[in-house]
Amino acid sequence: MRHSIIDAEPYGKFHRKLFFLSAGGPFLDGYILSVVGVAIGGASADLGLTPGQEGLVGASALVGVLLGGLVFGWVTDRVGRQLMYTIDLVALVLSSALCLVVPDAWWLIALRVVAGVAVGADYPIATSLLAEWLPADRRGRTMGALVAAWFVGAAAAYLVGYAVTAVAGDEPWRWILASGALPGIIILLARLGTPESPRWLLRHGRRDDAREAIHKAFGRYPTEAELTVLAEQEPPAKSRLSRVFTGGYLRRTLFAGGFWLCQVAPAFAIITFYPVVLGAYGFSKGGTALLWSAAVTLVTMAGCFPCIRLVESWGRRPVIIWTFVASAIPLAVLGFFPGLPAVLAIVLFSVNALAQGGGNILQWIYPTELFPTDIRASAVGVASAISRIGAAGGTYLLPLSLDHLGLGPTMLIGAAIAVIGTVICVLWAPETRGQALHESSSTTPVRRARETAR
C-alpha cells in the first residue's frame, strides 16, 4: 500500500501548532459552557430567574451547539475548513462580550444560544481540519487530546469564577460570562493564515491549491507522484448532507451521535451545575463547591491521558465500552446511597470523572474517522447535534430533577444513560486503529483489505 504524503510526513512543528490552534475551540467550549454554572447564582438574583429559566440559561448554549454543528458542518464541507476556522470565533467573541449589557433573562438566553452556535460550528471545522492533516499513526492520540483542552477550559472557568466571587461576590456575574471573549480574541488572531486541508481541496478539484497548502505546511512542494497518491485517495466529490443518513453511513451516524449523547447527557448536566450538585452534599456554593468543581474537572482531564495511549495500543472499541461501564458504576452507587458523606461522594464523582474523561476522547476520533472528506464535517456536525439534544435536555432537566425527584433518582438516571451507551457501543462500535482516513471511512472493509494486500 502506498502512503500519502500526509501519512508519510513525520509529526512535527506544523502538526503541533495546528493541534494547539484547534484545541482552542474545545477550550472555549469548556470555558463558556461551564462558566454559566459560576454566574448562574448572580444572574438569578439580579434578573429574578425562575428554576425553569435557570435551566434554560444552562441549556441554551447547548441548543446553540446543536444548531451550529448541524448547519455549519455542512457549510464547512461546501466552502472549506480554513475560512470557517476564523469566522466562527468572531461570533463567539461578540456574543460573550455582549453579556456585559444583558438586560433580562431572555437576552441572556439568546446570547448564550449564539455563543453555542459558534462553539458548535467549531466542532466540525477544527476537528476535520486537524484530522485531515494528521498522519495515521498519530491521529488517534492527537484527536483524543483535543478533549483534554475542553476540561482545561472548564477548570479555568471555575477558577476564574472562584477568584472573582471571592473578591466581589456574585455581583460581577456579567463580567464572568463576558470573560470568554478574551481567550477568543487571542485564538482568533493566532488562527489567521492556517493552510486549507489539501484533502478538501483535492475533493473539489483544486490540485494546485492543494500543492500550495502542503508547501505552506511542510516547507516543501509535493512531487507529482506524492500528490497523485493523495488525489487517488481523495477523488473529486460533491458534498451532500443526505449521504450522512443513507447507505452504510446511517448506522455510523447513529452510532457516533448515540454514544456521544450518552456520554454528554449526564456529564454536561453535572459539570454545568457542579456547584449546585456539590452544594447538596454540604459544600458552600459560593466558595468550596467551586474549588471542588475545578478539582473534579481536572480529574476528568486526567482520565483522558491514559486512554490517549490506549486507543492506539488497545484499540478504540474496548476503550469506549469499558469507560462507559466504569462511568455507570459510581453514578449508580451515588443514586442508591444519596446520603453518603461528602468525602465519599467526591471520590465517586472523581471515579466517574476519570472514566468520562477516558471515554470522551473518542468523541472526536470516531466521527472524523468513520466518514469520507466530502461529508466529514457534516457528519461531525450531525453527531455533535445529536449529542447536544441529550446534553441540552440533561442540563435543562437536572435542576428540575433535583427539585422534584431528589439527588438519588437523578444520579440513577445518569447511570441508566451510561448503560444505554454501553449497549450502543457493544453493538455498533467498530475498530479503526491504525487505518488511514480513506480506509477507516470506507464502508466496504473486505474490498479495502484486498486493496491493502496488493
Please, could you describe this protein's structure?
By secondary structure, the protein is mainly alpha-helical. The protein has one domain (5-453): Growth Hormone, Chain: A (Up-down Bundle), CATH 1.20.1250.20. Helices cover 78% and strands 0% of the residues. It has helices spanning 5-8, 13-47, 51-79, 81-97, 105-133, 136-168, 173-178, 181-191, 198-203, 207-218, 224-233, 249-272, 274-279, 288-313, 316-336, 342-360, 366-369, 376-404, 407-428, 437-440, 445-453. Helix 4 (81-97) runs antiparallel to helix 8. The longest helix is centred in the first third of the chain and has 35 residues, at 13-47. The radius of gyration is 22 Å and the shape is globular. The protein starts with a helix and ends with a helix.
Question: Which key terms come to mind for this protein?
Answer:
454 residues, mainly alpha, Growth Hormone, Chain: A, 78% helix, disordered C terminus, MFS_trans_sf
Task: Please give the CATH architecture.
Answer: Up-down Bundle
Number of E-state strands: 0
Any idea how many domains?
1
Main sheet overview: none
CATH superfamily: MFS general substrate transporter like domains
Question: What ranges have pLDDT less than 50 throughout 5 or more consecutive residues?
Answer: 446-454
Order of helices and strands: HHHHHHHHHHHHHHHHHHHHH
CATH topology-level name = Growth Hormone, Chain: A
Tell me the fraction of residues in β-strands, as a range.
Answer: under 5%
Q: Provide the residue-averaged pLDDT.
A: 84
Q: What general form does the structure show?
A: globular
CATH class, please?
Mainly Alpha
Span between termini? 7 Å
- Looking at how many chains there are and whether they match, the oligomeric state comes to single chain
Compute the gyration radius: what is it?
Answer: 22 Å
What's the total helix number?
21
| Class inferred from helices and paired strands | mainly alpha
Percentage of residues assigned to helices: over 70%
Transmembrane segments: 20-43, 55-76, 83-103, 109-131, 143-167, 173-193, 253-277, 289-307, 319-337, 343-366, 378-398, 410-429
Organism: Amycolatopsis thermophila
Subcellular location: Cell membrane
Membrane topology: Multi-pass membrane protein
